[in-house]
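USER:
Before I trust my own judgement here, I would like a peer's view. Write it directly below this note and I will take it from there.

ASSISTANT:
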Amino acid sequence: MLCLIDLLGNPGEVQRVYKQHPSDEAPSVIRNGRLLGSLTPLRAFGDMRFKWDKKIQNQVFGSMGKTSFAGLKEYSTPPYLTAEPEVATYQLRSSDKFLILATDGLWDAMSNEDAVFFVHEHEVNKKRALAKQKVQ
């Protein structure tokens, strides 16, 4: 269990998901560091296959001729995913230059340091371009 928590990087979210499902379902709820072995985020818009119960999935996806998760043996106690936001507050200080708001996709692609460097370089290049325009 510790390696899964380390892999996902957010033990509070992992515990929240585990608490919402029977303990005998724990091995399949988060498998290979992913929700039902498929999805990395534990909160998201969309991804209704992780939210709807079997009856609704069969109605909606069946009417479109698509496969739902309802037939998977590990899909026993939906919902597995929530769109309820995790809200955090941060008091901006005068020394702060910018604030990065991002989804898991950004953090899958770059570290905190890389994101800060990217934004900082963008700001520097933007100022250079504006200065160059004023000179011309």
About this structure: The longest strand covers residues 30-31. The chain has two domains: 2-71, 88-136. The CA atoms of residues 5 and 11 lie 5 Å apart. The mean pLDDT is 81.
